[in-house]
């Protein structure tokens, strides 16, 4: 959806919801950027500028694990996090991933994806939105909701930023949250609007909704009658909040 | 989320001397017989080794062989374990045997389930998918066109249906579709005329993609339903042709 629509004047409660959601995403983005900077520093000091991503990943593995453990400790609703590398030659060589998820005992464990391009279950991640947008543009990005088929196999959202080492983009640093956990975090914030509202991703897909007329995953190409669309000033303003004009049928 | 099951029916057949390869074979035949289904989680290693009457190390060798063949994957984390992700691709003889054993009404029921799940998936995908994800679906459809053998085409065909389920964003429907595809795809392709089947499937998939692009859920559900009716007719014709005494 483009942002050429004239900016509507939101009610104070709608503004409160927009502000709360924006702050939540700004904090998430700050945590992700913080982790990314630390991981970039770990990788830079553990490698020389000629190292390919496979060597880089190996050298950084323990450091990435420790840093992800910190993030997952601070963010109990984040499922997993790490760095997914760009293969040096597209279509050749195996994928390189350093991704850590919670294990059953309060620690983290490395998640292994199908990284062999010849395999039936090859996880062709360099074609997926969560990889391509941040990697090619350098923008922070929120992908989802989507089912991560052949990946972590859950219904999730993924926040990403680009990772750069020795002045070169090497991949994306990201974190996953299930759509259910995202809802637990954000539904209380949407309810600050005191009227039906729904948070939309960059494509108009519903992330979280406080009205049964819009369900997560639904695509909203134009605001339904009686709804305003307000940009969320975080994550490059790619998200927006649909808010009903009329609080009468607020739930 | 995950199905669990009790002792496997093949366990008493295992001899203590069975090696890793024998363990792998036994698991494969359980999948072919439908005793284990795609999506299922195997019991923990220690338990499974006991059921087979083998050492845990031997069992691990067997699982490792199945992992290399991408029949099982082992996932770590809270919802981890070893899962069956693919059925071994059957030979034409095995497909013939399956069709011979199935009654027409069984096949009709398989088709009915596939139509119900597939049409719902197509409808949801059309209302939930956006531009780049639809292009990915179209790229997967093109793999059917490029397939050189029935086995390749069946695999590409399955992958198209699974991707549509991914776009529908329902984890439950995706699990159902993965299971259905592992049962049905070989039946749709192995015994029918390859070129003819491929041209029908291609044009059916195109109709589905067109409806998804137009965000037209009703048209997508209808196109999918027609596509799966074609598949079902082909499967029943194959059954009738191998069973002349019927």
Task: Write the topology of this structure.
The complex is a heterodimer of chains A (251) and B (246).
Chain A (H helix, E strand, L loop, with lengths): L11 H35 L6 H22 L5 E6 L10 E7 L5 E4 L17 H9 L3 E7 L7 E11 L2 E11 H12 L6 E4 L5 E4 L17 E5 L8 E5 L7
Helix pairs in contact in A: 1-2
Chain B lengths: L19 H13 L12 H8 L3 H13 L3 E4 L5 E4 L7 H10 L2 H25 L2 H16 L3 H19 L2 H19 L4 H20 L3 H26 L4
Which class of secondary structure composition applies to the elements of chain B? mainly alpha
The CATH architecture of the largest domain in chain B can be given as Up-down Bundle
Distance between the termini of chain B: 41 Å
Biggest sheet of chain B: strands, sense, closure?
2 strands, antiparallel
Taking the sheet with the most strands of chain A, its summary is:
6 strands, antiparallel
Backbone structural class of chain A: alpha+beta
Rg for CA atoms of chain A: 19 Å
Mean of the pLDDT scores of chain B?
88
CATH topology of the largest domain in chain B: Four Helix Bundle (Hemerythrin (Met), subunit A)
């Amino acid at each position: 959806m483009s942002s050429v629509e004239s900016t509507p004047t939101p009610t104070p409660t709608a503004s409160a919801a927009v502000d709360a959601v924006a702050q939540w995403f700004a904090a998430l983005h700050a945590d992700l950027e913080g982790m990314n900077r630390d991981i970039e520093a770990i990788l830079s000091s553990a490698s020389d500028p000629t190292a390919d991503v496979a060597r880089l990943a190996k050298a950084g593995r323990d450091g990435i694990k420790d840093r992800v453990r910190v993030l997952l400790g601070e963010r109990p609703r984040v499922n997993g996090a790490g760095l997914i590398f760009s293969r040096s030659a597209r279509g050749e060589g195996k994928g390189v991933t350093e991704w850590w998820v919670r294990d059953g005992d309060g620690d983290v464990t490395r998640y292994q994806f199908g990284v062999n391009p010849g395999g039936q279950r090859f996880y062709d991640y360099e074609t997926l939105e969560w990889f391509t947008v941040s990697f090619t543009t350098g923008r922070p990005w929120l992908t989802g909701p989507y089912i991560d088929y052949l990946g972590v196999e859950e219904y999730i959202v993924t926040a990403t930023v680009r990772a750069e080492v020795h002045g070169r983009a090497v991949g994306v640093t990201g974190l996953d949250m299930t759509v259910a956990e995202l809802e637990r975090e954000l539904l209380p914030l949407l309810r600050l609007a005191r009227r039906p509202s729904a948070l939309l991703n960059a494509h108009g897909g519903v992330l979280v909704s406080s009205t049964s007329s819009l369900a997560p995953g639904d695509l909203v190409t134009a605001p339904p009658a009686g709804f305003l669309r307000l940009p969320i000033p975080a994550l490059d303003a790619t998200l927006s909040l649909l808010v009903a004009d009329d609080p009468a049928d607020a739930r | 989320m995950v199905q669990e099951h009790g002792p496997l029916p093949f366990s008493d057949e295992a001899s203590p001397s069975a090696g890793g390869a024998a363990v792998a074979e036994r698991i494969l035949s359980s999948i072919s017989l439908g005793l284990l289904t795609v999506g299922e989680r195997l019991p923990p290693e220690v338990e499974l080794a006991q059921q087979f009457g083998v050492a845990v190390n031997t069992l691990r060798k067997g699982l490792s062989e199945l992992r290399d063949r991408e029949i099982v994957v082992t996932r770590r984390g809270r919802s981890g374990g070893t899962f069956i992700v693919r059925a071994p691709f059957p030979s034409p003889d095995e497909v013939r045997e399956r069709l011979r054993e199935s009654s027409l009404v069984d096949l009709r029921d398989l088709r009915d389930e596939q139509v119900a799940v597939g049409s719902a998936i197509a409808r949801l995908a059309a209302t939930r998918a956006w531009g780049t994800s639809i292009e990915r679906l179209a790229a997967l459809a093109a793999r059917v066109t490029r397939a050189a053998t029935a086995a390749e085409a069946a695999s590409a065909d399955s992958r198209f249906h699974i991707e549509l389920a991914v776009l529908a964003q329902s984890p439950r429907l995706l699990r159902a579709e993965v299971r259905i595809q592992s049962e049905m795809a070989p039946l749709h392709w192995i015994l029918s005329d390859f070129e003819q089947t491929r041209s029908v499937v291609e044009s059916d998939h195109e109709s589905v993609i067109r409806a998804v692009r137009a965000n037209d859920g009703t048209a997508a559900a209808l196109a999918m339903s027609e596509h799966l009716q074609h598949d079902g007719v082909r499967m029943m014709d194959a059954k009738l042709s191998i069973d002349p005494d019927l």
